[in-house]
Amino acid sequence: MNDKLVSVGKILNFHGIQGEAKVGFSKNQQDFFCSLKEVFVKHNNDYIPLKIARVRISKNVAIVKFKGIDSINELIDYKGALLFVTEQTIRDNLEEDEFLIDELVGMEVFDNDNKKLGFVVGVSNNGANDLLSVKTNSKKVSLVPFVKAIVTDVKLPERKIFINNLEGLLE
Questions:
Q1: Span 101-163: which CATH code?
Q2: Mean pLDDT score of the chain, rounded to an integer?
Q3: How far apart are CA 59 and CA 83, in angstroms?
Q4: Residue 72 in 3-state DSSP?
Q5: Which of 41, 50, 64, 157 is deepest in the core (most CB within 10 A)?
Q6: 54-72: b (≥16 Cβ within 10 Å) or e
Q7: For the chain, what are the domain ranges?
Q8: In the structure, what pLDDT confidence band is assigned to residue 104 with cuts at 50, 70 and 90?
Q9: 12 or 171: which carries more pLDDT confidence?
Q10: In angstroms, rounded to a whole number, what is the distance separating the alpha carbons of residues 128 and 105?
Q11: How far is CA 89 from CA 8, 74, 79, 171, in A?
C-alpha cells in the first residue's frame, strides 16, 4: 500500500453477537467517522480493508457493522486493533480552514509585515481550540491559539503562516 494511512479509531470491544464492533474515535470527529465507507485494520502487519455496512453512535462510541463480519468469532481477532483511512480520505473531508497537523509542523511563522518570527514545532489542543507551538528566533517556545483573529493566513505551498503578533504573544 503506497498511500499514507492515518489512524481514525480503535475497535474497543464487541457489541451483541452479530459481529458489530464498539469503536472509539477522536472527539469532535463523529460526522467524519459516520461518513466513512471503508477503513483498514492492521492485523499481523497487514492492512486489511473492511467495508462499513452501517454506523450508529451510542454513548461516545461508534457501533460499527462491517460487511462480511457476522459473528463475534469473526471479529475477535480485531479486538484492540486500530482502524485507519488513507491520508487522502482525510484531506477530502477537510474544511477550507482545516489542515493536517503534519502540514503545519515545520512551517515558518511571520507577522503581517512579513517579519520572520519563528517556526511551528508542534500542534496541541486545549479543549477550546488548537494551539501552535512556535519556536521563536530567541529559541523560546510560545503557544499561539489557532484562531482567525490571530492566525491571519496559512500559505501551504510556501510553507508560511502569518499571524497577528499581539503584544506579549511571542517572547
A1: 2.30.30.240
A2: 86
A3: 19
A4: helix
A5: 64
A6: ebeeeeebbbbbbeebeeb
A7: 5-93, 101-163
A8: confident
A9: 12
A10: 20
A11: 11, 26, 24, 38
